[in-house]
Specification:
Strand order of the largest sheet: 3-4-2-1-5-6-7
CATH class of the largest domain: Alpha Beta
Helix content: 40-55%
Number of helices: 15
Largest sheet: 7 strands, mixed
Order of helices and strands: HHEHEHEEEHEHEHEHHHHHHHEH
CATH topology of the largest domain: Rossmann fold
Distance between the termini: 51 Å
């Protein structure tokens, strides 16, 4: 039986999850700031690439589509995902946020300063030779099969996945799911792995969590003298703050299936948010909630790693002024209302919790922006 106190567990977690970014991570952080801060050309390529993306879910899609996709000479076929929303609603959302997309329509070439972008609805069939595919959103099996046919089967052709295994085969990621049934995301048996099998000869790369956990989206409120100010609106900031709040406050109940994976990933991210000079009141309240999590995990006979990995997120949440409701640690995945209201916290603490997030210089992970950079990195 583990006899450590909550404070000892927290101190141990601080030594485990304080991971120092390497040079690759630092270069990516610099590149993302370059992507959002100006309008100059960054990615030169003469090819044509397919991209699946699901704007209206997370902000990394928005940053990628507005600030990266328009800074390459490569022509892009951007498939707007179905799933929980329709491709039409997602494209309208994009147009509402960014004036540069105001006149965009599906299946009509959109000319930018440097390239041509063709937006297409998920479920379509691609019929153009492709030099690469960026998998940043779930996709219909028919569209995926057409991409496999169109990809040039040579090593220079690049496929970049987000959320797959290291070999790009099926894992737990959303982007490898299919949108074949309206309003749903499903795993049609063998569809994704068959796609990987059918593109032999191309270079497949999955975005490693060892990178993505360290590269965060800059807060637009600190870049109001750049084009990135377009995301400093209430709609984008609400989403950025809500998603950051999820990484901080939403703990899975202790379980042997996925709690460790979620908690560890969040601990590495949340270490960057953590206020090490938190007040005594916040510190003591955090330790009490950590004890509650520890006791529940122990009562289920679970490994100590599960509560060790929850320590930093729980303490960081309290350092931001959040206070959990008794017996609650998080909410069900996909519950947008619970995410916005941070439903596991006492309602009277949510406002100060969110205000402290708003003041951060960096917010949620920049998954899709990193993946876009990887698509053109040689």
């Amino acid at each position: 039986m583990d006899t450590r106190t909550p404070e000892e567990v927290y101190r141990y977690a601080l030594t485990q999850y304080n991971q120092i970014p390497d040079q690759v991570v630092e270069e990516l952080n610099d590149k993302i700031c370059q992507v959002v801060a100006g309008e100059c050309l960054i990615f030169e390529s003469g090819g044509t690439y397919a991209v699946s993306s699901d704007p209206e879910e997370d902000n990394d899609d928005l940053v990628m589509l507005r600030y990266a996709a328009m800074k390459t000479t490569a022509n892009l076929i951007i498939i707007i995902s179905a799933g929980y929303r329709t491709p039409h609603s997602r494209l309208e959302y994009l147009k509402k946020l960014f004036p540069c997309f105001k006149g965009v329509e599906f299946n009509v070439p959109f000319e930018t300063e440097y390239n041509i972008i063709l937006f297409m609805e998920d479920g379509c069939e691609i019929n153009a030779p492709l030099d690469g595919y960026l998998n940043c959103g779930p996709i219909h099996s028919r569209t995926l099969a057409s991409i496999a046919r169109c990809l040039k089967k040579v090593p220079a052709t690049r496929v970049v996945t987000v959320g797959a295994r290291d070999d790009c085969r099926l894992a737990a990621g959303i982007n490898q799911k299919q949108t074949d049934e309206p309003g749903k995301l499903i795993n049609v048996p063998d569809i994704w792995n068959t796609f990987i099998d059918n593109i032999g000869g191309v270079t497949c790369v999955n975005l490693s969590v060892n990178i993505s956990r360290h590269v965060l989206i800059p807060n637009p409120l600190y870049m109001l003298d750049t084009p990135y100010k377009e995301m400093a609106n209430d709609l984008c900031m609400t989403s950025l703050i809500d998603n950051t709040g999820m990484f901080l406050a939403c703990r899975p109940e202790p379980n042997p299936h996925f709690a460790l994976r979620v908690n560890e990933g969040n601990s590495i991210i949340d270490y960057k948010y953590l206020k090490h000079d938190m007040s005594c009141e916040d510190y003591e309240a955090g330790l009490l909630k950590l004890k509650e999590y520890m006791d529940l995990a122990k009562s289920k006979g679970l490994d100590a790693k599960i509560y060790e990995s929850a320590a930093i997120p729980i303490m960081a949440t309290h350092s931001f002024g959040g206070r959990y409701q008794e017996g609650k640690f998080g909410w069900a995945p996909g519950d947008e209302s619970a995410k916005h209201n941070v439903s596991c916290l006492l309602p009277e603490t949510v406002a100060i919790f969110k205000e402290n997030i708003r003041r951060l210089r960096y917010l949620t992970p920049a998954y899709d922006v990193i993946a876009f950079i990887m698509l053109f990195k040689r």
